[in-house]
Amino acid sequence: MQRAADRLKTKISWLDSKHSFSFSRHYDPRNTHHGLLLVNNDDIVTAGKGFETHPHEDMEIVTWVLQGSLVHQDYVGHNGLIYPGLAQRMSAGTGIMHSEKNDS
Predict the structure, then answer these.
(1) Which terminus of the chain faces fewer neighbouring Cβ atoms within 10 Å, N or C?
(2) What is the rounded CA–CA span in Å between residue 10 and residue 17?
(3) What digits encode the pLDDT tens for the residues 14-64?
């Protein structure tokens, strides 16, 4: 188990992210998941920026926002605003393309 202060970090121009498990260039075979949970990231996304359209499959994705708001769009035309007090669950099943961006 990894302490919060010891989490791996990714910091780029529009994203400050802390990873609880192995992620991208931070691969550690001893820290790939917890039960069925594969990813747990704390992300701070710069206003007006975010994750461009990208794929997922065979997973459930839960997003919750602590401050501000996040715009979600997917390839079948769903659009939504995620804000504090609201959680979003997305089933990626056989595949989905989506984007998430800071609405500020």
Answers:
(1) N
(2) 5
(3) 999 999 888 778 888 888 888 888 888 999 999 999 999 999 999 889 999
Largest CA distance in the chain: 39
pTM above 0.90, yes or no: no
Domains and CATH numbers, the chain: 1-45 (no CATH), 47-104 (2.60.120.10)
Q: Residue 51: how many CB atoms within 10 A of its CB?
A: 16
- Residue 36 sits at φ, ψ, to 5 deg, of -85, -10
SS3 content of the chain, % helix, strand, coil (to 5): 5, 50, 45
| Of residues 49, 57, 59, the one with CA closest to residue 99 | 49
